[in-house]
């Protein structure tokens, strides 16, 4: 279980304190598939990073399985079972895709196992397995490779920050199947930041973050209808429109 208690995060901008996360309380139970959504700039990515230890909270407490991880660094949190796929994935010059997947899995997995992870995220494995994880890969390819590494880690708690970002509409259809599959097969907890209706639609719970606070948290059936007509719904409508235009 992940518990955020009174979590506050301030930064200094132009000499002034800017509050990004504001006394936020949130509990995420084990084994849940939770989607965080909300307006741009509401604090979702910042919150995900703070859970992973990328940045130190100003006030409050973060507990993971009852252990206070507030002061723990990224490596310690990763070792306790947290994984994170960034909104903007990073490159690893000199490291091949297969090496990265082996590092993520924590063992020397076979080429065929590594290929399975790549296939899960819709990549034609043999074309990528020996590629270097550098800037020669497109944003969408890097994103999918990063998602594959998080799947390979098989940790208790996986965070995906906007997995749809930078992924084309055709691959997005595959990605939905990836997350539907993760939902069915994963033993741990999954926390996804997303604006996409199809991802929101497979959630157990939806959390709406706005102005650094939890505006709403409840079951999908409770929260989802209220989101219709908001930016999330508009994003979806735009995606559908783009899809129609591109198939013309
Ligand atoms: N280090 C920082 N210094 C100043 N402002 C910051 C910093 N980090 C985040 N912010 C601001 O905090 C707010 C929340 O940012 P964040 O990226 O968490 O939003 P978000 O909800 O993930 O948005 P989006 O849906 O657009 O990805 C934004 O206004 C952002 O500009």
UniProtKB/TrEMBL annotation:
Q: What Pfam families does the database record attribute to this sequence? A: ABC_tran
Q: Which GO terms describe its molecular function?
A: ATP binding; ATP hydrolysis activity
| Domain ABC transporter, first and last residues per copy | 2-236
Sorted UniProt keywords: ATP-binding, Nucleotide-binding, Transport
Please give the Gene3D superfamilies that the UniProt record associates with this protein. P-loop containing nucleotide triphosphate hydrolases
Which Gene Ontology terms of cellular component type are present?
plasma membrane
Q: Sorted alphabetically, which InterPro entries does this protein's record hold?
A: AAA+_ATPase (IPR003593), ABC_AA/LPS_Transport (IPR051120), ABC_transporter-like_ATP-bd (IPR003439), ABC_transporter-like_CS (IPR017871), P-loop_NTPase (IPR027417)
Instruction: State if Membrane is listed as a keyword.
Output: no
Signal peptide residue numbers: none
Say yes or no: keyword Cytoplasm present.
no
Protein name as annotated: Fe-S cluster assembly ATP-binding protein
Q: Which organism is it from?
A: Acetitomaculum ruminis DSM 5522
């Amino acid at each position: 279980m992940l518990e955020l208690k009174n979590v506050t995060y301030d930064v200094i901008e132009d000499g002034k304190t800017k509050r990004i996360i504001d006394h936020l309380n949130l509990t995420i139970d084990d084994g849940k598939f939770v989607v965080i959504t909300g307006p741009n700039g509401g604090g979702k990515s910042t919150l995900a990073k703070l859970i992973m230890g990328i940045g130190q909270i100003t006030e409050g407490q973060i507990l993971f399985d009852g252990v206070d991880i507030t002061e723990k660094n990224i490596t310690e949190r990763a070792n306790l079972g947290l994984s994170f796929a960034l909104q903007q994935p990073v490159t690893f010059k000199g490291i091949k895709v297969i090496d990265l997947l082996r590092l993520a899995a924590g063992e020397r997995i076979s080429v065929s196992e590594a290929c399975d992870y790549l296939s899960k995220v819709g990549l034609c494995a043999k074309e990528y397995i020996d590629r270097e994880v550098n800037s020669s890969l497109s944003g969408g390819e890097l994103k999918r490779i990063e998602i594959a590494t998080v799947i390979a880690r098989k940790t208790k708690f996986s965070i995906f920050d906007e997995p749809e970002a930078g992924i084309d509409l055709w691959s997005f259809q595959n990605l939905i199947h990836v997350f539907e599959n993760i939902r069915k097969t994963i033993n741990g907890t999954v926390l996804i930041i997303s604006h996409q209706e199809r991802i929101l639609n497979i959630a157990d719970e939806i959390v709406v973050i706005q102005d650094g606070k939890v505006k709403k948290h409840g079951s999908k059936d409770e929260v989802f209808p209220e989101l219709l007509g908001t930016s999330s719904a508009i994003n979806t409508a735009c995606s559908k429109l783009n899809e129609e235009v591109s198939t013309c």
